[in-house]
User: Fold this.
Amino acid sequence: MRFEDFIKNKKVRKAEKDVSLISALVSTYKNESVIADKFDRFRKIRNKINYYGEDISIEEVKENSEQIKKLTIELRNKYLGEFL
Assistant:
């Protein structure tokens, strides 16, 4: 049996990104605990929206979106800059 057959028969499912793992890796291996805490805060906001139906304002969405973009760019430039 192929892996696709297991998925089709709902015996397994594809995994999603583990955001808490990303946070742990960033804080542990790169000594970026402040950034890891920010990502964890965004994860909690996302979970409240997705799992508990909580609403947030458009202003908060815009603010968080900008912060996530800035953090991503900062980490990318700091750790992947030589490869880009």
User: Anything to note?
Assistant: The chain has a mean pLDDT of 79. The chain has one domain: 17-83.
